[in-house]
Amino acid sequence: MAKTTKKEPLDKKNNSKAKESTPWVLTKQHKIVLGSLLILFSVALLVAFISFYIHGQEDQSAVSELGDRSETVQNWLGKFGAFLADVIVYKGFGLASFLFVRLFFLTGIFLIVGVSSKKLKGIWFWDLFAIIILSVLFGFFATSLPELGGTVGYELNSFLQDYIGKTGTLLLLIFGLILYVIFKLKLSPERIQSFFENTKKEIKSDLGTNTAPKTGNSYNLEEFAITEEKESENPPPLPKPSQFEVNKEALKPTISHSSEINLDPVAKPKPVEEVLTDKNDVDDSFVIETAPEEDLIEENLASRLVSDFGLFDPTLDLSNYKYPTIDLLKEYSTGGITINQEELEENKNRIVDTLRNYKIEIAQIKATVGPSVTLYEIVPEAGIRISKIKNLEDDIALSLSALGIRIIAPIPGKGTIGIEVPNKNPTMVSMKSVIGSAKFQEAEMELPIALGKTISNETFVVDLAKMPHLLMAGATGQGKSVGLNAVLTSLLYKKHPAEVKFVLVDPKKVELTLFNKIERHYLAKLPDSEDAILTDNAKVVNTLNSLCVEMDNRYSLLKDAMVRNIKEYNDKFKARKLNPENGHRFLPYIILVVDEFADLIMTAGKEVEVPIARLAQLARAIGIHLIIATQRPSVNVITGLIKANFPARIAFRVTSKIDSRTILDTSGADQLIGRGDMLYTNGNDIVRIQCAFIDTPEVEKITDFIGSQKAYATAYLLPEFVGEDSGINLDVDISERDTLFREAAEIIVNAQQGSASLLQRKLKLGYNRAGRLIDQLEAAGIVGPFEGSKARGVNILDMSSLDQFFNNEQNN
Description:
Strand content: 5-15%
Number of strands: 17
Radius of gyration: 38 Å
Oligomer: single chain
Structural class: alpha/beta
Distance between the termini: 57 Å
Shape: elongated
């Protein structure tokens, strides 16, 4: 009881300090209330300002006597409205004060909707700038009407004219208007010129439609109906379309989305012969669909998370820890996706022509532009077999002269067939654009990971805790190490050091070395290990077995706490319902990252596969998750036992369909274009993603930022693992040794090779007796311990040393 009484005041002090140090943050409810207040206030200002210009002269005498309740005013908002109008309009900025109504209204809307503050700051700056310029401008031209420019405009105008005269004041006002037009309205001579040119072209095209027949392949259903009527009056040599074809035209989908832009606004005329022969021409409702640009959040919202007062806070040990800032990352791309309309139109025509050569007609085609790949969605005419289009994959690739054509027939959830075509000039997806997206910053996930952007340019965020393990595979140099860095960076930006720990295995010895700087913050290791990042395969086996011990210990804690998973356990511990004196503690997530799994399988074999499979089967509930990467996705590396427990898989580009099927259970990874192009599946649909790129200097900046802060005394220590004795101590007594013990020792020393198979051959023994002899030789110290697939070492070099060994035993 004495211990608990000492700990409780300390916890209260720490909680009070944490509460005082954390900044006050507007919640969603606060923003809605404040936004509504500002909108209503803007409406009140509008009412007061309008009534001022109607009854302002009548209220001038009453404004100074607002305390007198008997005094009446004509302002529609009463005395308060008359006072506001007098201060802001008459004594303020005059007619330009109406911009305050716009400012308060937009601020309220932005608070409710949740738009970024950066955009709102720009609106306030330029509107205040316009208020001052307009006030001085009205004061310059309307000196006899003080209500137009207000007192501020009149006084500023008088001040400027006293020093630079009327001409200088006018020039200064013109310069201010130029600044506003260029920087706010984005008006330039080129835009003015292009506006007049487009207007001229539209007038010419309108005049041309009255005199010349409309040709080309860009028409709508109404125009099609009109041309049918004209053709019926003057019958052409070809027969009329059947009623079935007319119904098909009527059933064609229309374009109603605002984000869909007509890609072919100006039709190119076709020869008359082509128009006549192409009676069943494709309806070119060819549109380009782009996702709206996501607003970048300049601030890492994870730093705003405030723990609930009264609950145990696991972050108190590092309460002053600062999350990495987004400006540590580099912005590689110049902006959004650049749309090359000529390239899209050319690819569309080639796809249509190739399919038409094989008697496949298309009802509609639509393009969705992504960072590196464009998805063309086609709707074939009725009666066309999907397999017929699927078999034309190589023919379409030949016509487009492109690498990595991938056909999705059909697209899940849509009645369309997808053809993915790589862009000639792909856009790089920077890690900054992904980390700064609202989708990642506002993600309510346990372990959010931002992998990159989808084919529709949307940030792709997944929860590692729901996966629950991730398998990454792909050929050398296709982006696996960059993908691992993206995964680790995502977690560093969202999780506190007390909440997540990493066990990093790097057989290459160079890929993950930068994370050594955050060893005492985020890494976990064995108690007797010097380096937290494992590069020696022998230590990897011990670490994996140690994780299995940690898993068993955690399951015991969950059993005592009567909960089912780590989230329920930690919530119960934070609520102070579990006693630390009974062994309970806050459990951080542990993430095992293996950069090259094939190398471990080659050197350690079953010693690695068994604990990996055991962790994959059981560890998801207690917060241990595995991320395994390999460049050789063959069946002897990614075995069936491992694949069964890794439903979430990422496939970078591979060299053959067999490798693709090994990873994803389907083809497609062999058609990727490399450089971060990948396919992700979690047991359901396959999503194509352009992986976010993060370079070594960026990782170095992040690790330096974290490593320079106060850390724990040591890395997170895993439980110590003691290996099995394998029967070494069973035959310590000399009298119980095998009768062939000395003869076996001589064979081993002569051959300098400690193996049971050697004894089987030389002594003509069975495997069990030869194995017991090897165990007895190990217990005696003649041969070394078991080292996996390697042969045991022999500790005695020659026969004379062996004789001396037996003589010493007899004397003892």
